[in-house]
Amino acid sequence: MSYSNTDLIQLKDFYQHQLLQDTVPFWFPQSIDTVHGGYLLMRGQDGDLIDDDKSVWFQGRTAWLLSTLYNTVETKQEWLDGAKSGIDFINQHCFDTDGRMFFHVTREGNPIRKRRYYFSETFAVIAMSAYAKASGDEKIAEQARHLFGECIKYSSTPGLLEPKYTSERPSKGIGSPMIMINTAQQIRETIGDPRCDEWITKWIAEIENDFVKHDIKCVMEQVAPDGSIIDHIDGRTLNPGHAIEGAWFILHEAKHRNNDPHLIELGCKMLDYMWERGWDKEHGGILYFCDVYGKPVQEYWQDMKFWWPHNEVIIATLLAYTMTGDEKYAKWHKMIHDYAYSKFHDKENGEWFGYLHRDGTVAQTAKGNLYKGPFHLPRQEWYCTQILNEYIEKTIKYENQSL
């Protein structure tokens, strides 16, 4: 199948409507904590508050969203003010005395948990850079660049952070180069940083050389330091949706680099490999985990359908289609779009359920917790709108030039 221009215009209108009339209104303004600052995001099906603790990841992610809406959709003062609430809360409560960030705090900002990795920091970087662009606050821009530098150190200096495991079976995950690619892309597109291009090239090379296995048509989630497969349960476990998220980061970079053909090919191969492994041919949707050799997976939620991989696959398939014109990606995009919006979307209350059983029935009704909030879904709807706006404009311009 293929998408006509009319189809794409309707799809763009759909994503824009869902973002601005369904997803964003579910969260705002009710989730902005007017007492302590930041955001109250642990919410049930109808938006009721089920816990007032705060995920530090989501203080940054939410400030990024509000700032990005302000920068790219409409200069609404409520979005800018909402973003500032998150930035202020992060700076007042989310950094430990060693400069590292917490993961989980109370409503007031008292620390509960700190994790070994630096994802809280990366989400703070994208929040600060987007907010600095929106507000013109150069002090926040410099803080974002400084924190980005710290993240580079964390990601590239072995032993700098406390290890999770012993040295008996060393490994590395695709998550680090992936999140750093996206962090660098975000800071480059908002406030700029001269380090971005060089480091993005290094991180893409690491993914291509160590995690993408063309011989077995796979993208590994975890490998040995030399890139070899670790033939144990953890080493064999794949997360197709996560790998496909990495694929669209690389396609996004290809677009930035004047449609770099090598990066387009790499991103599309990553998508191809993991669609084949992840798409549930019996029930539809993307399986959460699978084994590289088809062996049983340890995690008991391995065949559930989580919301966020579907957001990432919707983006990746649409981006691949608009960049290559390959009708296969239009077909896949329609399959994942139709599945996700029919199964995850709560038509009565708005937003998406986060967790489905394999057959597509709702496993539990929470819309927000430490790991789910206003990020993957609104980012997907926002970015798909951006992709389609650009593609439609180019198509119309080309057709007019051909007349």
UniProtKB/TrEMBL annotation:
Isomerase found in the keyword field: yes
Gene3D superfamilies per record: 1.50.10.10
Keyword set, alphabetical order: Isomerase
Keyword field contains Isomerase: yes
Family: Belongs to the N-acylglucosamine 2-epimerase family.
Record's protein name: AGE family epimerase/isomerase
Organism of derivation: Flavobacterium piscisymbiosum
